[in-house]
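Homework help board

Subject: predicted structure for assignment chain

Our instructor gave us this sequence and asked us to write out the predicted structure in token form, then describe one feature. I got the tokens but I'm not sure how to describe them. Can anyone check?
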Amino acid sequence: MSSSPQQPEQSFLPKTVVTPKARNTSKSSALHEEAVRLIPGGASSTMRWASYEPYPLFMKSGAGSKIVDADDNSYIDYLLAFGVLVNGHSHPRIVEAVQKQAMEGMMFGTAIELEVDLAKKFRQFVPSADMVVFANGGMDATSNALRIARAATGKDLILKFEGHYHGQHDYAMVSVESPPVVAGMEEYPRSLPYSAGIPSMVLDTVVVAPWNNAKALERIMKRHRNDIAAIIMEPVMANSTVIPPNVDYLKSVKEIAASNDALLIFDEVITGFRVAPGGAEQLYGVTPDLATWGKALGGGLPLAAVSGKKEYMELIAPGKVSYGGTYFANSLTLAGAKANLEVLAEHDYQALKVLKDRTDRLTTELSEVVQRTKQKACIQNVPGIFTLAFTKYSKITNYRESLLIDWEKFRMLHQLLLDQGVYLHPDNYERVALSTAHTDEDITHTVQAFEEALKRLS
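My token output:
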């Protein structure tokens, strides 16, 4: 989840694009009008309405790679609940597992065997993790990982990177957006609040650095050597377009953290159980001290996790680090997540190999479409996710380069794709996600839809 830089209040889209002739969306319009009277913005997450013109579509059902809106328009879904649905909508085995568990007990508030079973399955995917604890969402995971790091080191400050998103808690809501006019020098950025209501004293505990720049990170860490408890980072930047790490960058960050007595935390909420069985740490061969997981882990159920080295995880104990939540590791979620991981693990993780192949095929063919339509655009991907950005750069390597993209053109592309039954988020920062349910036919249709849309934009 992320948000683009401030957009103009008025729509820049021609009315013929904002209200496509091919689709009737009158029920979504009526539902939105009713929703805004009851719910701020019309939905309980700003990312469900803030970037949509003239109103968000209300979805009513989903199966496999497809979703259907309130007016019975069908779309190939590349939002996938922001990447949660790695096995697509309503996978039969996940649905069956949840239904079976609901009959046996939805909540206990006690220790249950399912939690042990899922922990074993988790370690099958992430063998570097000595121990794991479960939570509801990525925000729970990252906030608790930071608390563990502070307890382990006895230090108070954390270091995060410009443009990285780690959830909605105050310590994470710093420099998610960093307009250069107020953020200062790229190599020494200021800590900026992402939302009203964040105390200024919180900003004093968060040091910000530019990502993919090892030399700048080393200088900043040396300046705060005795105070920084942890470096937290997305190992693949995926909330400001998809930006893979430079060669050996993750290895350099780990060395810098260790030399300054700080823990390294990988936020794998997006990359985990998607880019590789063991997430980005397996993909790039770098093991952090702690890691946070979410989205694809639950496969459609609200689940996150914190994992890491035993010496740090065992700090979770009475009188040391407090950890818990009423709905953490509830029975329904555990049952669904276990089934989700079983589907991914079958036949030596064949599902994730197929997911990578689908991503490679789609991004390769889209690159060819970009060239044929003579668009200035950059496509970047890792297995399971990608972004297409209209930009002068042939490759985006950091947050400030990601600011220099044509937001309006992408939102026009979004509307044109809706006309052809392809659904993705209108915010260009949001990654396009694939699932194991996407078929070759879906990819073919999607490429054709992109080509038609890009021709019209030309």
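Reply (TA_rk): Your tokens look well-formed. For the description, you could write something like this. The chain has two domains: 15-90+349-457, 92-343. That's the kind of observation they're looking for.
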